[in-house]
């Protein structure tokens, strides 16, 4: 049988539509534990190291489930191809992922999340990071929110919509992935907006936002209002679109809230987050919240979109939102604190443009699931080896 090569977007399509198959990850157990393919639906994921196939081919092949298509994933592509050739000889229907796991890590899946008379809003889900960026299209303009470094995707998407990227916004100085706004602004001439609270000490050519400031398209389109929501970081900012959608960055998640302990000032930032949460509770409960991250695919709605009403979120996170004094909130945060990945310090410096890293190193830094949520539920999601 012919071996075929597939792309990350094919893999996501098969996983999200429930195609019966085995995903065979041939990276070593340590890399596998740190980061692996996740799916909106249950699926069979097997980890058998490439070295096991070299050492004892028959024994390794015997561990691969039979009678189902096998989709192989590896670090860079070569070892997956090697194992694909072995499995092909043993009669499996087999394919391997082009460009390895980093192509999965960088994949963006666009989903429409809402529209008005003269605009459309898209969520770009990044399954490998469990994060979401957003695109707001009106007329021939597109505004981006929290783009990742996969610039080609955004530029192609804008071209398909017949748009130019004119503004790009960051919700905060990201610690868990390399942000794309600086490069997008440089390539397209878009204005890069961010909050002084996080960016003042950075070396980014950004335009500072004012709390409550309204940003607009050149011609018509919805209002975009910046709402400062400090806590996850001091400069965390949410964006209210058309008074209907709340792009909440890493402040309000569908499950949990953004952890305020990443900057080494857990108590101080937790108090800020407590005040922000009080302000969030006063907003219109019908607002559709669009978060910057999710913890698990179970948070997605039936259309596989990460969006819920604010009222629904307050209800499902009552344990957090009903805390009625800062001391109890700080205690809750402290009880759920956990170490952050070592890479976060470097990623912050790269995002602040205070450190340059080669593309290959950026790719490594950028791989892996986010750890931005504060609650015990998020804590329980961590791989056991972490
Ligand atoms: Fe964050």
Question: Can you describe what's shown?
Answer:
By secondary structure, the chain is of the alpha/beta class. It folds into 2 domains: 100 residues, Oxidized Rhodanese, domain 1 (3-Layer(aba) Sandwich); 228 residues, Ribonuclease Z/Hydroxyacylglutathione hydrolase-like (Metallo-beta-lactamase, Chain A, 4-Layer Sandwich). Helices cover 33% and strands 22% of the residues. Strand 16, helix 10 and strand 17 form a beta-alpha-beta unit. The model has no long low-confidence stretch (mean pLDDT 93). The site of fe (ii) ion has 8 residues, from loops.
Provide the spatial order of strands within the biggest beta sheet: 6-7-8-9-10-11-12
Helix content: 25-40%
Largest sheet: 7 strands, mixed
Number of strands: 18
Indicate the mean pLDDT: 93
User: CATH superfamily membership of the largest domain, which one?
Assistant: Ribonuclease Z/Hydroxyacylglutathione hydrolase-like
Supply the number of structural domains: 2
Note the topology.
Layout: E1 4-6, H1 8-16, E2 21-25, H2 29-34, E3 44-47, H3 50-55, H4 57-62, E4 69-73, H5 78-89, E5 94-97, H6 100-106, E6 109-116, E7 119-126, E8 131-138, E9 141-145, H7 151-160, E10 164-169, H8 181-188, E11 191-194, H9 196-199, E12 207-208, E13 214-215, E14 224-228, E15 237-241, E16 245-249, H10 266-281, E17 288-291, E18 308-309, H11 310-316, H12 318-321, H13 326-335, H14 343-351, H15 359-366, H16 376-380
Parallel strand pairs: 1-5, 2-3, 2-4, 4-5, 9-10, 10-11, 11-12, 16-17
Antiparallel strand pairs: 6-7, 7-8, 8-9, 13-14, 14-15, 15-16, 17-18
